[in-house]
Amino acid sequence: MNPPAAITDGKISLSPYRHFSREEWAHLRADAPLTLNADDLERLKSLNDPISIEEVVEIYLPLSRLLSFYVAATQGLFKATQRFLIAERETKLPYIIGLAGSVAVGKSTTARILAALLARWPNTPKVDLVTTDGFLLPNAELAAHGLMERKGFPESYDTAALLRFLHEVKSGQKRVTAPLYSHLVYDRVPGEERVVESPDILIVEGLNVLQPARLPRDGTAVPFVSDFFDFSIYLDGHEDDLHRWYVTRFMRLRQTAFRDPRSYFRKYAEIPEAEALDIADRLWTTINLPNLRENILPTRQRASLILTKGASHRIEGVDLRRL
Predict the structure, then answer these.
(1) Is 172 annotated to bind ligand?
(2) Who contacts 233 (Cβ-Cβ below 8 Å, separation ≥6)?
(3) Alpha-carbon distances of 238 from 66, 136, 139, 206, 210, rounded to whole Å
(4) Does 101 appear as a known binding residue?
(5) Whether pLDDT at 181 is above 70
(6) pLDDT tens-place string over residues 237-277
């Protein structure tokens, strides 16, 4: 089958996505109720992510409504399979949503808002959220292999552990654990775990969750992280905006989290502002930008849905993969 074609200004362009302007997407909210208020939003949003109730209404409520249809359809397929296999005792498996995108694009805010909306559907499904930060290799191991400057790149993760976690969740295990990560100390927390117990919906948020595996030369099948996803979202932004947001966030953290004596980045709170700006620029240019270009951005076309932000952090367009 040929890919679907879209006609723009008299020209035919091939795309696996259907594009919606913000206004077009907002109309698809229909009767989805607003279940968050301004106080909820303040608790859910991340530093330097100026999201508004308007954004929730126009972007996330339509998305929540779409996902309600997708989850219901998946459950319907499960029940049909149960009947076919005469296996009524089997329990339905979690619906897993992957969320990818660059550093500073606002993934954490999007993940938390989406989790809060999904958890407030009728019949209150159980929704869990896990970030892949917990699957970063410990700093000591990264340092031993010369990877501290590659933290966040695919090779800095314990991919086998992440795949094992997702396999256990998708296999219906009632209690699954993930390593716990602290952004304050910039490392895994020894002996601490994130427990996931029989969720109806699981959101997995991370830089490289849509990254395909590198095929081994012997032809052995290797699963991708995204093989376990029922739906995936890529949060997009222009490089220049991402750079600016990263630097702005870094400078704001100097006045907040970096001042904590336990912070790995404590030293950056005490240096002159001009020097801090230079460091933020260097970190973006030498680490985050190469990771974006080499590993993160190329996975955008693997997403079920792309949310594209404008310069003000406002989502301006939505691209939904055609069925």
Answers:
(1) no
(2) 97, 98, 99, 100, 110, 303, 304, 305, 306, 307
(3) 26, 26, 30, 18, 19
(4) yes
(5) yes
(6) 999 999 999 999 999 999 999 999 999 999 999 999 999 99
pLDDT digits (tens, 9 = 90+) for 217-232: 555 656 789 999 999 9
Distance CA(243)–CA(145), nearest Å, equals 28
Q: Is 226 annotated as a binding residue?
A: no
Asked if residue 104 belongs to a known ligand binding site, the reply is: yes
* Distant-in-sequence, close-in-space partners of 152: CB < 8 Å, separation ≥ 6: 103, 136, 207, 208, 287, 288, 291
Range 1-22 average pLDDT: 66
C-beta separation of 237 from 308 below 8 A: yes
pLDDT class for 3, splitting at 50, 70, 90?
A: very low
- Tokens at 226, concatenated: 């995204």
CA 87 to mean position of chain CA atoms = 34
Q: Say if residues 304 and 1 touch (Cβ distance below 8 Å).
A: no
103 known member of a binding site? yes
106 annotated ligand binder? yes
**Residue carrying the six token digits 């970096």:** 258
Give the residue extent of every domain in the chain. 20-321
**Dist. CA 186–CA 179, nearest whole Å:** 13
> In the structure encoding, which two tokens stand for residue 130, read together?
């896990």
52 is in an annotated binding site: no
CATH classification number, 20-321, choose in 3.30.565.10, 3.40.50.300, 1.20.1530.20, 3.30.1380.10: 3.40.50.300
Tokens at 131, concatenated: 């970030």
Please determine, for residue 2, whether its predicted confidence score (pLDDT) is greater than 70: no
Structure tokens given for 312 = 């003000």
Tokens 């932004």 — which residue?
237
The rounded distance, in Å, linking the Cα atoms of 230 and 236 is: 20
